[in-house]
Specification:
The chain has 161 residues and is α+β, with helices and mostly antiparallel strands. It has one domain: Aminopeptidase (3-Layer(aba) Sandwich), CATH 3.40.630. It is 30% helix and 36% strand. The two termini are 27 Å apart. The mean pLDDT is 96.
């Protein structure tokens, strides 16, 4: 079931996210996030953008949200999309279900487009974005450094209107 974020979800969402912090290059955070900072982030994002979770048998298996792309007024009509699926729940199409609902919700806003900002290579995330019609519009070379290596970032864009 997909539902709107409840702030009581913070710990389960943080556990999902911190796995990616510690074990992958999907996020450029290096150190695990503390619950207070993460909760504050959830409150801020969900007050302005859609924030949804995927729950099955009272366990959260993933989440997705839109957020501010950059803090300048001219960017007010573009959002960045984010999706995380619990690392033990891959292969169940949870990311696809979350993204379908997130995009539907974003289309109901006054946003003009949404960006997926991905560490590349990342075949699974690239396929997810392209499945929904996102097109790669940028390739930033060696802009992140994690686990002793330089990482590239690609930007995929979907026009909502």
């Amino acid at each position: 079931m997909i539902r709107v974020l409840n702030i009581k979800d913070a710990k389960e969402l943080l556990d999902i996210y911190n796995y990616y912090v510690l074990n992958t290059t999907a996020t450029f955070d290096i150190e695990p996030i503390k619950i207070e900072a993460f909760t504050e982030k959830l409150v801020l994002i969900s007050s302005e953008y859609p924030f949804i979770v995927y729950e099955e048998e009272n366990e959260i298996l993933g989440y997705a949200y839109g957020s501010q792309f950059r803090p300048r007024a001219a960017y007010n009509y573009v959002a960045e999309s984010t999706v995380y699926v619990k690392h033990t729940a891959h292969g169940k199409q949870i990311g696809t279900k979350l993204y379908a609902e997130l995009i539907r919700l974003l289309k109901e806003t006054d946003l003009h487009s949404v960006l997926g900002v991905l560490t590349i290579p990342n075949e699974g995330s690239i396929k997810l974005h392209e499945k929904f019609g996102f097109e790669q519009v940028a390739n930033l070379k060696e802009v992140g450094f994690k686990f002793g290596e330089w990482l590239n970032v690609g930007i995929w864009q979907l026009k909502l209107k």
